[in-house]
Records
---
Amino acid sequence: MKSKNAPVKAVATDENIEQLLWDCLAEAPFIETQKVEQRVIADPERPEILARVRIGGQERLLLAEVKSNGQPRLVREAVESLAKYRQTYADSYGLVIAPSFTPQSVKICRQEGVGYLDFSGNCLLNFDFIFINKTGRVGTVAKKNYRSWYSPRVERVLRTIFMHPQRVWTIRELAIEAQVSVSQAFSIKRHLAERQWLEEFKQGFSLARPDLLLDEWSENYVPGRNVEKTYSSARTVIEIEAMLASVCQEQIIPYALTGFSAAMRFDPMFHYDRVSAYVLSDLSKIISALELTETSGKGNVSLWIPYDEGVLRGAEQFDHAKITSPIQTYLDLISLPGRGEKIAAAIWQNFMRNKWKPQAAAA
């Protein structure tokens, strides 16, 4: 039986968000703000905020989506929602409002022709002959750095949780499954509870906000802890991957394709020209069997020695080769601007999000 629900903290009060938008529009004195309406009841057909403004005697509609953070994944979701709303609200301009935005999120907004506004007043509104762009403003509350908390053991536990959506855990069960000590599992559980990301039951606990945990984890994930070795080969990508899988199977070498090599398995239309794989052993047998030539340049084969064997946890067989789990593939791609970030967002949307409770996946 449920004993406690994880409360969802509001990103800001309605009054504060409305004032943010008013202050932003006030930067252009010839914009007359007539009315700002906020959505009271959740309605997928209506934007969260609708502002009616008058410019040069003409009425214009501004549609805004408010997000709990400005990570690329949430910004892309907001952009998609705004595109749908604009089909109903003709001649409207969309913007995303969040506490802060990453450089990649700002780039997404610019590319999609959408404005943005953060809680410090940094903004971009660019429509008709209106151009308001403010940067460099710093909020009064410094953002806490959690990078040191995301250690290999912590990430083992988090991967385990993400591999079993909606499972109710006890501390001991989680420790055994993730191969960490009971005290370590307890400490991690306490941290997640303090962030209000858990839902507690009499029989244990489960992750209630995978979306927020994933955003923070990806922001603090350090791919550079893995050691990359770069090689060149005259063979095709398909040939290299097939030979790699064969050698690793024969030699009982733990491995998994990752990065863009794994991405193609989630999106068959995706094209790539470079093999990327984690390999948990001495690379000499693979180098010899595949006749690879080490290079200091770009090359077309990247073999990664993982910082922790937990990176390979949940690897799945796909056709002739193993690929990293959806969560690991997401982490490896989200930090790559452009195609990498876009595919990572699609992996969350199409292969991870629906496995969690609807209220947990909502942003």
---
Amino acid sequence: MRSQFLGAYLFRHSGDPVAVSVCARSISLYVIPVGKAEGNLLLHERTMNSTRSKTTRRAFLQSAAAAAAGLAIFPGAAAQAASSSATGKRNIKLGLDNFSVRALGWKAGQLIDYAASLQTDSLFITDLNAFEKFEDDYLQDLRKKAADQGLQIQLGSWSVCPTSKAFKKDWGSAEEHLRLGIRMAKSLGSPVFRVVLGTGEDRLSPGGIEERISDTIGVCKTCRKDALDAGVKIAVENHAGDMQAWELVMLIEGAGKEYVGANMDSGNACWTFEDPASSLEILAPYVITTSLRDSAVWESANGATVQWTAMGEGTVDLKAYFDKFAALCPGVPVHIETISGFNRELQYLKPEFWKAWPKARASDLGKFIALAKQGKPREPWKAPAGKDRKLADQEYQKDQIERSIKYCKETLGLGLK
């Protein structure tokens, strides 16, 4: 019986276009010689007579084999084989990212009290607006307040790429913003200062994401001495669809990994059509802090849809994920950043989708498709009828993070307390 043909994906390898077709029954890979093509397009047809490529180019065969592996292996089986049950503590610090409760509008002191009430080990404050002052005395008082409750504060802010559409001048120039954050981090006792490049919109900006990466590297290099003198590492996040894991590695290596590392966001990996477990493997040598959440992923009309969820309620095998995390990222805290309840479709079955991804890799897409095949559609969250929307948001956000922290402690064995 012939497999149902689902689609073909066209990539460039060393300048040559290569098509990869996906069949339903075996999820096998076929390479189809397609001749010259313009850009990085996606072909979507229901029938096709395909032949296996007989190319002998070693580099291409390695690339195709990697893609085939990603498509042919269901991650559930491999993950289950690798996963060990959470029978005890993993010796990993557990904390929350304050963006999880953004609707509350709490300031730093209130966030410390809330984190202490949840018995976490760490508090990641990723917005400078949570601080009433930037003076050292105030920040050091907050550091003491947190330490008295068994908490370490980690600090973050937003874009330091001056050419990103997401960049704001609220804290001066990109360099001034970064220097301010480094100084504040030192006063708070934070070993890192989290920043972002921008969002997925930057991929279509003049020069594309590579130019934005170059601009961000330039800002980091200008502040290199400040970071080294303060003993604070700059933690760049894979944020809101801006970079895949390998692109973030390129940024870190370009700036210098002695003072720049990664803030790994597992939910954002899904927005760049990456399996979070694969993203972890790539970023692990560079990870210095985290903002993690679970994700539900399923196939949809134009590709796949992602809905971020509370921990343990998505498609990702979290036990296997944290088995791997514990082995690859020793000493790195887990911060939970729940941003639940809405759907985002990645329309990779539409040719225009690929304009933002001229160097997309077949293996990344293949693994993501395999993950999506395990999920089922979900409706987005809606506030209860007749309830004040602000209050509903606040209650929903608290419910999501509190359920997640409980799951992480009881099921995944995270946290020291």
---
Amino acid sequence: MGGGPVEEGRGGEGPGGAGVGSIQQTLGIGHNLRYIAAVKLLIPILFLLAIPASAQSAGRRPAPLRIEAGSVAHQVVGVGQDVVVAGEALADVAALDGSVEVSGRVTGDIVVLRGGVHLASTARVGGDVFVVGGTIRADHGAQIGGRMVSYPNASNAWLTLLEGPSIGLGFASRLVLGAKLALLAAWAALLLLFFAASGRQVLETASGVRCEPFRSFFVGLTGIISLVLTGLFFSAFARGIVGVPLLVLVVLLAMVLKLWGMVAVFYALGDWISRHLLRRRFRPLNAATIGLLVLGAVKFLPWFGVLVWTTATLIGIGAALSTKFGRREPWFELA
């Protein structure tokens, strides 16, 4: 599985840390204006997702997402590109398949999957720094209010819990195409099962996807990294009678979160398409089928399909965690 996680303790200047930031429960369903605003924000993100695909085909990496000195942003998410924070980020910073470089201030956490983090001497981070599939480099003088945890040698077996395993075959391979068609058929069967058993809870999770897609993305990314680190800990340090069952539970939880979250994403996407493009209202199962067909078609696009499905998976997992599988109640009751 690779080397163990690298963790550094609490400190003032340089690496240090408080506990891992908790995943908070989302607010109630937003009103129509908030939903329209979320849709307007989501459309540019989907458009920007096409930029890494074209750049990849040309052999070039897309330009970094930059927060210049003197600029202020809220939650910053980079997908398939690096993130440079020279100004101030008032919330969290996340990168998927990209690195993060900070010379300014980040109020929240920094979470990176398949990339690295560089903190300049002027960097100020109020929360934790988590990296899976990369390293953390902090220059002298950098200040981190939380913990720094990196797992540079994380196995792809864990990372591909997001979007299918990489089996080393070409995109046009009959085996790959057949596997994708079989997976789409399995998703269709799963739609029937989930809507028959827990349709109301699925719709409630889908409301989290619609109202707060960016927050759901970050919660999903944080949740997946937490599960990966937990699984790696069990596989490396808690082997045997105790470790194996716990490892199995972690993997099952990750898979259930992915399945539940993706069904909610299918419905949220299909419902938006039916009401805004087709100008009709379909039953929830039919709307979810439309979303599955659209994302299923995207899945066959090389590289871009994997990127879109990974992003959708993280949004779905985040919505499932935030809504507690559509129940809208705290995960733990405090006495």
---
Amino acid sequence: MYSIILLVTLSFLISPIEGYGQNQSEVSGLIIPRDNEGMYVRNEAGQFEVNWTAKTKVALVANTRLFRNWKADQLEYGIHSSKEVVSFPIPKGAITGIKISRDGKQLENTLREARDESWLSEHGLKLYFNQRPQHEQLATEDDPRFIGQWNPQDKPRTLSINGEKYEISLKKGGQTKALLYNLLTVKACKPFINRATVLGQRKGDVVIADEIHVQPIGDQVELDDPKLPRYLFIGDSISGNYDKGLRAALAGKFNLHHPPTNCGPAGNGAMNIHHWLGAYEQPRRHWDVVSFNFGHWNAGSDKASYQRDLEVVIAALKKTKAKLIWVTTCPVPNGFEPSGPLDANGKAPRRTSGVMQKYLNPWAAEVMARHPEISICDQWQFVKDNQGGLYTDWWAGKNVHFGGETADALGKFLGEHLERMIKQ
């Protein structure tokens, strides 16, 4: 069994959709159960009622990287930061592909790439399963849609338009998400275990859903040992580096969870913390401990905005009643240029050696001093203290990430800190 959480993908509030009437609205947030006629969507602005109808379309939001190992009969949907994989049956039949391009200069570039390279980017891709295109076309200024038949079996994948095959991929880099229609119904909008965006018409305090875009994040509760406390660790790719070491250090002692994403900068945390925490007031979904870090993605931030976003995150974390741990941001190694002064706008000098010591960590320390109940795990100091030992080569390099023993040691250090804190 898996769960679905509705997380913010486009907006947090009910807001008019640009280019439509005032009654056209978009709302995103955590799905809260209601009845068979609809659901509630909760975000930091409150709880909103959503009704669906027989005409409501439901689309699965999928990173196009999932298409690399395509199977004809099912889509294997790996959950980010989890071992869980959700399988979605693929109906037989033709697949209509619609690639939407922006107008203006981007449309000109896209048409040129289609003409000269027989290639289209997967950005803006919608797929309609078991459905042949009613007509096929290249995009125009009046209608910026490429419409054809999508073939996932071709290597690389193609979009056939009026007898011409165009490679459709991300061969020039990046990543994106596609909308997959005709795979799900409103029954897939289960509470607590997906994220989605609702597009529809606002009637009073209710949104009548025209479309619901659902992105599964898995149901890690199902894998929990109910006898153990629950621990959520929030962070960027560095937390992914030390994931293995942390789990090893706390094996058999805690149920460990990480948001299904790279948590990025503090501003992203301020926007999404409510969704990462989930329905923590529900049975078995509470948090006993939460550790959090934002820093590397804020290396070019100013003090005021960084501290403001941290305060927003902390306010949300305190509502869980969990024990809280701030994890200081690890250093930037000496292979990078030395850190200079703040710029004219008070922004830190981005990813430079010493930027965490001079700016980000002191700024964060000021915030944590206002919240003495938050424990501090000083990973920055741990890496510094071992500069002449385990981290000698790391300090001499030009890569902020950790691997192998250096990563595992960070996880073990955090795990030991957590255990000491719990015993106090």
